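Example record

The entry below shows one chain as it appears in the dataset: sequence first, then structure tokens.
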Amino acid sequence: MKILFCKNNFAGPISGADEIVLTYATELRAAGHATSILLVQPPAKNDPLAARLRAANVPLDTLASPAFSTSLATARRFAIRAMRTFSPFSGLILSNSRKVVFNLLQQYHVACCEYLKRKRPDVVHVLTPDPGAVMLVRAAHETKIPVVYQEVGIPFHPPGFEDVYERFVSVMPLCAEVTALSPSLAQELHRVSTRNSPAKVLPLISPDHNGFHKSESTNGVVTFGFAARLEHLKGPLRLLEAFSVAQQTHGEMKLCVAGEGSQRREFVAGSRRLGLEEKCELVGVYKSIEERSEFMKSIDVFVLPSLTEGTPNVIIEAMAHEKPIIATAVGGVPDLVPEDVGILVPPDDSGALAAALTRMAVDIELRRKMGAEARRKYEQLFTPAAVLPVLLDLYAGMIEKTRSNNHFDTGRPRVSHPWINGGTTNN
């Protein structure tokens, strides 16, 4: 089977959508399928995701020139400066900037159609409603190649992205299938979609690259780990506040933070103000699978206090390492973290977060039980063995419908996966 994964560009070192594309493509390739990736904009010269694709022998093609990407990057920096200078008009500047980028990317429609006619993939798989997604879906539809769209977050979230989704909703009827990462997110996607048929669940794959090795603190110190962009929507400052309160009750605690972002300086200043410099370690962005695994092995509990989320890869990675979870009850997180796997708290509630940190710190048996259940849940839902049959079943059904010119269910037997057979979103 020839599967072409499409995105506008690689968004950066901590991008869930980029990681999903790479993992799907490499795991399907390892299983014997002809996967490749098409980006509208080329990646940076030393992009680590591109290097991983080369190592896995997954072809990567682009439509635009490096000069085009450089021009867009320059325009983006100019827009950011303008938003800072004229902050009352920042929303309007951002919306107009996105519209300009969207219109520029539509100019690659013909080139994309020609590319698809040459390559003739069996299926086109588009992820996220980024600026190039509308063009990619239209090109696949025009060349009569079945296209599946996969939403990796929450439709019309985070706040400020409404205009992006309003443009994208118009092409949803052109997709053979529309999918989301968990049952709750599939229901939400169907609610805002212009399609009659329900959205389907297409789970993440999180491979055990280095095998699983359980580790626990041996010095009595409980280490809480956070790995995400240091930005407002991920809640790092709320985590710092909660950690400050919790460590007053249970002093043998440490906070290890992986990531970079606009709130890094504020986080560092806050840790100094609260007298937590010795208890907070910032390790930067992990750049490889091995570094990610070492980070997860070094912590006892994983914490993600986001204000909005889809289905975070990083929570699943922590579950694979048998770590109990503390997270906010937003988006698809409750699908990942039932009460036997972790503790969910309301978003933007540092008091509830502090109580959860304290409870985990003082109860080693709770950590062990939740960690073991997290690992079991991971094996059940997110391993290649669990998810690849779901992917291949979806693709095969799309191909059958296209070849038979039948846009209804072909009656093929469904694969076995708890999120596929256990809910109403995939009937």
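Notes for this example: The mean pLDDT is 86. The chain is about 45% helix and 15% strand.
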